[in-house]
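# step 3/5: fold
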Amino acid sequence: MIEKILNKIEEYECICLYRHVNPDYDAFGSQFGMYDLIQNTFENKEVYFAGDFSSDLVAKYQFNGEINEPNFEKPTLGIVLDTANQERIDGDISLCKEIIKIDHHIVVDSYGNLNLEDSTASSCSQIVALFLKNKRVKLSSFGAAALYMGIIGDTNRFMYSATDERTFEAAIYLYNYDFDMQALYERMYMKHAKDLKVNAFILNHYIEDEGVAYYVLKDEDLKHLKEKKDFGYGDAIRITGAALALMLQIYYKRIAEDTAYNMLKNDLGFDDDAIAWIR
């Protein structure tokens, strides 16, 4: 499938990269990583981005290029990363002539003309990093660092159960690009004062029920903490760095149930019985 994807990219001059709404490290990491892969592997490609880039996470990648959407006057190939279903895509893929989906969540919507879906992978960034097994593929240190951040973010520094030998294989490929790993970790895990206030609020207001700890952030809480209303799972993982980041947003209809299921199953490693209990 990797060879088919590379051949499809070769066919197009104009490419637009998508990922999911409320992006986390893996969403941005796979998006920036794929951008870098295309720019370094192919010649004469116009690579664009779709989606909102107002997140505080963007600056941590130290991207020096331009973030623009295409005008779609030329036939455009859309590549959607880290997004299980069409409803969560940040952007309009109907403007693209063809779609490639690359994702690691449980398969619920194979919306691409080409679909690279591996629900056993730790992250979408891992899947993209393993494109490096193909000798055609090239990266810069920027792309390697972006993909490494995606892997670290979704595995919580290799802690989650989806981490396996392929995860470390991908990490070794990326490590060999000689980026500053200590600086990368500092960018990812250095806390702002407002993050510490959110963390303190969560730790002081969580609920424990039969061995499961969770919390619910209501709109008035977010206003008090001066957080945006779409504060979500990725933000919580970034701030708390633990499974306590599980939030019952389902109750407040902030996220779709299939999205919540993917988060619980793939990201936090809950089995189906535990998910049924939470529901």
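# step 4/5: annotate
DSSP finds eleven helices and seven strands in the chain.
# step 5/5: archive (pending)
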